Amino acid sequence: MTYFDYLSYAPWPSPINLLKDLERSTHVTQTIIQKLDPGQEQVPLLPQLNPPYWEFGHLIWFHEFWVHRHGKESNPSFLSQADTLFNSSIISHNDRWLAKIPTIDILMSYFSEVMARTFTILKSGSVSPEQAYFIQLALYHEDMHNEAFAYMWQSLGYSWPLEHPHRSIEDHQTYFEPRYIRIPECQLQLGSAQNTGFIFDNEKWQHEVSVPQFSISSHAVSNGEYLEFLKSLNDAKISSTDHQPAYWKKEGNDWFERFYDQWLAIDLKAPVRHISAQSAEKYCLWKGVRLPTENELSILMASVSEQWQPSSLWEWTSSTFEPFEGFSSDPYQDYSAPWFDGKHRVLKGWSKFTPNYLRRSQFRNFYLPSRRDFFCGFRTCLA
Ligand SMILES: [Fe+2]
Q1: Ligand 1 center to residue 180 CA distance, Å?
Q2: pLDDT digits (tens, 9 = 90+) for 271-303
Q3: Which residue from 19, 26, 42, 107 has the fewest beta carbons nearer than 10 Å?
Q4: What is the pTM of this model?
């Protein structure tokens, strides 16, 4: 299969559902951007940040480029210079701080015009597979950028302008004592099969892998458990600063965690978050356990959830982000292929900012193992 795989990502969602999802995401994006206080759109040049107005322009451009310009620069944009300004494949990270970003009024009307055109298509009720694919791609891309806004606002200590997601255990979940679940040797169907709806290219295609028996924790590592590790480093007179979760501080004997613009006492039972894969591995070494592989975590996440507790965090694995055999890029070629560089790690799960439809057990997220600014945590396997 080739470049045109995407035309086979049926069944397609109904236009009415797609419209509902897109209206919701559009509302989220608009609220985030509109509620920035004057001056907050200026952010320091750091690897994990983007200038917010640039990121806003980029997600509009992406939507327009794939849904309305058919992925061709020769089809003109509503906004002059849009390709040079907002194509993330062309404009380097540093140059995003130097770019002459249009005013917020111009960006807002660009956003409204592009979205209005898509809403018209969806309201017509007649949507081709090609349109359904690219509208979904643009919607999920927008959702991912909305999530990137969420962790960027957390990094910057800005207040979060939307409903506050709960900070510890998932809503309506009952707490039970953590334990290790023994999973016997089994065959795993890894990746996504054809005709299972929208997928990303890195999920192609479903294939069987055999996984030796393993034991995996029902819960992600908690703040309390992680604190024990930090104490052990201190006791051994080893600096714990590098391994401290981002946004923690100690006052007297008490630890606090910053959640957006508020400092809160650490909830010892809640999953520890904002931990790099490197720190997670140090913890494992200390505890005599290990990180799960992508296959192992995929098995857990595809299993009935009464047995394990989701963490509402992206969970690190020990697996490098690699293509499955027979991989081919979909039209947005920079989604996965540039990141098969041997440096990125696979993460599974979702954060509280991930919409339900992206919380699929086949979904593969990937980050550099040094990152800890996004909503990430980990669980462990017996070594
Ligand atoms: Fe993007």
Answers
A1: 38
A2: 999 999 999 999 999 999 999 999 999 999 999
A3: 42
A4: 0.96
Banded model confidence at residue 2, pLDDT cuts 50, 70, 90: low
DSSP reduced 3-state for 280? helix
Q: Which residues of 139-152 are buried (b: 16+ CB within 10 A; e: fewer)?
A: bbbbbbbbbbbbbb
CA 331 to centroid of ligand 1, rounded, Å: 14
Instruction: Quote the ligand 1 centre to 284 CA distance (angstroms).
Output: 33
Residue for token digits 């592989």? 293
- The CATH number of the structural domain formed by 3-156 is 1.20.120.450
Residues of the chain within CATH 1.20.120.450 domain(s) are: 3-156
Percent of residues, the chain, with pLDDT higher than 70 = 96
Average pLDDT over residues 33-46: 96
Burial environment of residue 333 by CB neighbours within 10 A (0 to 12, 13 to 18, 19 or more): middle
Q: Does domain 180-222+270-382 have CATH number 3.90.1580.10?
A: yes
Q: What is the residue-averaged pLDDT of the chain?
A: 94
Which distant-in-sequence residues (6+ apart) come within 8 Å of 376 by Cβ?
273, 274, 275, 313, 314, 315, 316, 347, 367
Structure tokens at 296: 């192992």
Q: What is the CA radius of gyration of the chain?
A: 21
